Every structure is written in C-alpha cells, then in structure tokens.
Amino acid sequence: MRVISYSGDNHVELLRCGLEFFPALIAAIDEARAEIYLETYIFSLDDTGILVRDALVRAAGRGVVVSVITDWVGTGRVESKQLKATLTAAGVQHRSFNPWFKRGVARSHRKLCVADRKVAFAGGLNINDDFFSDDSRRAPLPAPRWDFAVRISGPLVEAIHREMQDQWIRIGKMKLRARWDRFKMGRYTQHGTEPGQALAGLVVRDNLRNRRTIQRAYLQALGRARETAFLTNPYFAPGRKLRRALEEAALRGVRVTLLLGVGQFYLQDAVAHSFYPKLLKAGVRIIEYTKTQLHAKVAVIDDEWATVGSSNYDGLSLFVNQEANVVVSDADFAATLRTEIEIGLSEGRLVQLQDFLHSPWYKRLWYGTAFLMYRGIIRVITLGQDA
C-alpha cells in the first residue's frame, strides 16, 4: 500500500472561485523568471482564458521556459489546435493529453501549476470564465461557478514540480526503458516532520502506480473520522467502497454531510438520486447546491483533515482519469474551508428521505435504470473495476 508523501512547514492559502484564483495565477506567471509548468483539463479561449494565455506568452517572451499541458477532449479538438498554434508561435511549449484517444479513454483532469519551483497551485478550477457553464452549452450562470483552489509555498512545491515534470516527459515521446525507470522512481513514501508543523501532501491518480490513491485517502480519512465529515462534489456516483465508508461513518455517530451539485446533467442527477435512500437511512445528511453551478471537489473531516483538488466522486475520476488533490492536515486551513462549505450548505436544499420513499414508481424506475446504465458503462471502461 502506498501512502501520501507529506511534508511539513507549508503555507497553503485557499482561493475562492475565479475571482481569487485567476489574479493569483496570473501574478505568479508574471513574476516567474525561469520556468513554468501548467496543466488543465479545459483551456477556453474566452476572456479569462485569453488573460492566462497572454500571461504565458509574456513569460515566454522574457525567456521563461513555459510548458503547458491541456486535455484534448476537455479543451476541444479545434480549440486545442488554435491554442497550440498561438502558444507555439510565442515560444511556449504545448502538449495535448491523449489526442484522438491514442492511449485509451483516460483523460487528464488535473489542474496544476508551478512557477519557478517557488509557488504552486492545485484545485478544481479550469482555465475558463466562471460566469458560464463549463459544458458545451456555455449557458450564463446566475453567480460565479462555485469552486476552490490552493496557492502553496514550501516543501510541497518541489513534489508538485517533480510530478508535473514527469507528466510532461511521460506524454512526450519516451522509450519503453525510460518509462519503466520513471515508473519505479515514482512511488510515494511518508516523510517525517517535526512536531507541530502543518502537513500537506500531493495525491495523484493514474493508471499505473497510483490507481487507487485518491480513493484510499478518502477511505482512510472517513475510517478515522470521529465527529464530523463535510464532503462537497459536483458529480456523485462513487463506488461501493466509498458509499459504504460514508454509511459506516454516519452509523457510528459521525455527522456526515454531503454538499452535491445538481442540475447540469440529467443522467448524472438520476444516478446520484439512486444512492440517496440508503445514505439517508444511514444518517448521512445530503444538501443539493442550488445557487449556481457547483464544481468544487473539497472535504473537511474532524476539523483537521482537508482536501482540495480535481477528483470527482464518480467512476471516471476514481478509476479512469488522471487527477490531483492536495491533502492538508492543519486546523486553521480546515476551519477556513469548513466555513466556506457551510456557506454553501446555507445556499442549498436539504434532501429529505420522504422525498424518495414516496416518489412515483416511474421516478424510482428511472433512478434504477440510470444507475444500471452508468454501472455498465463504467465496468466496460474500467474492465470490471468496482462501480
């Protein structure tokens, strides 16, 4: 079993939505003097994306080595081509992750950046305008998309830099022997820290050495929970192990609260609803966020353990896509994030068990059918892994 690579003495700052994230990201890019790595799932060429793109171009213009990875599906085929042409012409190195599905169905869903090995960013925000939905409809939102990232300084930056550097090399042209050597080097180990120092670690998911690392981090945190667990996610379709961990925590007296996004995808909502009755009977409290599009993938457990990242609670994020979360063990950071989650809870709708016990038969049939469809698709994609 691999464990999280923790380091102490990190400063981790919570960034709320694009209003705080993009100015901080652009400032770090503008201050860089040597090297920038950036990864994102979506890089839209909207007003926000152009601001980030132009900052990257400015950096390359003053001699900074800039390397950008965008996902071919998330960014889009045409948009990827346009972005690559602009960046390459300006001296920015750009690679698309898995174009034309040449390496299977996996996508890179990570949102990471490191500038000069001094400052790093991680979280759930793509490079796009958060006043519009992040699907093909691009529908105007009633409020900015609700999401979080973190700005990191300290020893953890080096670990994120190393992971991003390796990712850049991995998706390029590498000989088989070189890939095997990097695979052997890429195992996570626990680092000792001095008493009293805050801990933070990078948790990544890939289809080689870290296939279940992010799910295991959640399972271990829930297994140790004694008082409270707040979990926020837009796409709720976890496998049996994570569902069982939520139920077992609630049954032993932990106050488990799920804040979930709804309203973006009809099928996704139906799959999530198929899980509600059993969770509610176990004592899990479920709130559906209704103010705007929820995109945050964050959690706080026992006011000490917290995570911010890119991983959803669905089969794609937990078993297929490449993801990156930062885990923080620090009471002050956990309190800050919990406050934000509680604000989100106040802007949502409490789900009642009676809503499902007395729902019409055709709705119950639809929820069950949606789950069976989802499970079938995930089992085909993951070659039978737990869904």
Task: Summarize the structure in short.
The chain has 387 residues and is α+β, with helices and mostly antiparallel strands.
Describe the structure.
The structure is a single chain. By secondary structure, the protein is of the alpha+beta class. It has two domains: 12-176, 2-Layer Sandwich (Endonuclease, Chain A); 191-381, 2-Layer Sandwich (Endonuclease, Chain A), CATH 3.30.870.10. 41% of the residues lie in helices and 22% in strands. The chain is built from 13 helices and 16 strands. The strands form two sheets. The chain has a nine-stranded mixed beta sheet, sandwiched between helices. A seven-stranded mixed beta sheet has the order 2-8-7-6-3-4-5, sandwiched between helices. Helix 1 (17-31) packs parallel to helix 2 (47-61) and helix 9 packs across helix 13. The radius of gyration is 20 Å and the shape is globular. The model is unreliable at 182-196 (pLDDT under 50). It is found in: Cell membrane.
From the structure above, extract its key features.
387 residues, alpha+beta, Endonuclease, Chain A, 9-stranded mixed sheet, 7-stranded mixed sheet, globular, transferase, PLipase_D/transphosphatidylase, lipid metabolism, phospholipid biosynthesis
